[in-house]
Amino acid sequence: MSKTILVTGAAGFIGFHVSKALLEKGHKVIGIDNINDYYDVNLKLARLEALGIDKSEAIQELNSTSSSTYGDRMIFVKMNLEDRIALPKLFETHTIDLVCNLAAQAGVRYSLENPEAYADSNLTGFLNILECCRNYKVQKLVYASSSSVYGNSDAVPFEETANVDHPISLYAATKKANELMAHAYSHLYGFESIGLRFFTVYGPWGRPDMAMFLFTEAILNEQPVKVFNNGDLSRDFTYIDDIVSGVVKTLLDTSTNASPYKLYNIGNSQPVQLLEYIEAIEEALGKKAIKEMMPMQPGDVKQTYANVNLLKNDFNYQPDTEVAEGIAAFVKWYRGFYKKE
């Protein structure tokens, strides 16, 4: 049965891909995004255009309904998540069955420069979403948390039962707060909430502030690649298609776990050393990197490694994209989108 699903952050990396997947399954998607300038606005508008949303309409403060690609099954509204007038009005206008909250002020390092943005979007905005889910009887809320909540834990792989009371960035602290807020609302008001702790997502249409994008750009432009902590880092790099598969399953499928409140790691469960990752990018580009060894950055963690057994057991989640395959797909997209030979 077709559902009406609100996807916040629809012009973002994961939000774009999730919206596309839901539309292709025949569902109606109401996408919202404030299209801020944290990174290149043109990339965000290009994602919306790929969803059938006219770019000239998307930048206006009004509803923009696509008449191409997906017909009236895709609606986009430019909006701040924390807008306490506009968001409830959206729920009044449309009967929304499910909410997928992917909007947030992203980036660990940027939280050191502009902490207010994280309070506005990640805390006030998330509370606004919870209030709307409560007041308009939404069936289920799936929301983005982050692997950053684990901080500098040495206990790997990371498990959902681990203590995550020691964040080392404001971004991580806001994601931990989201989990606590969702727990309270699920307990008090009975709607189902699922938090997904994303592990280093990469792939086509990715964010320009992420390692995959930065490394590719630097290598092609013969600029130094900044290798933090002298390369002594590892990340559970997770390809976007595997992330989308997990998000869509948690939204649309019924879990074998009856609890109304759930938290899951969503990753590849195969961490890769940073220098190996750079080598794979070099291979895909056919070009060597100029490496600039750098110290550890404030707020960064040394390693991430997801235990995804809970998500496998409850929703049959099966990540299956090897890093070399995912990097090749990103490089192909990057060369095409930016017309780089």
Automatic annotation (TrEMBL):
Record's keyword terms, sorted: NAD
Q: Which InterPro entries match?
A: Epimerase_deHydtase, NAD(P)-bd_dom_sf
NAD-dependent epimerase/dehydratase domain span: 5-267
One Pfam entry name:
Epimerase
Q: Which SUPFAM superfamilies match?
A: NAD(P)-binding Rossmann-fold domains (SSF51735)
PANTHER family given in the database record? EPIMERASE-RELATED (PTHR43574)
From the Swiss-Prot or TrEMBL record, give the protein name: NAD-dependent epimerase
Please tell me the species this chain comes from.
Gelidibacter gilvus
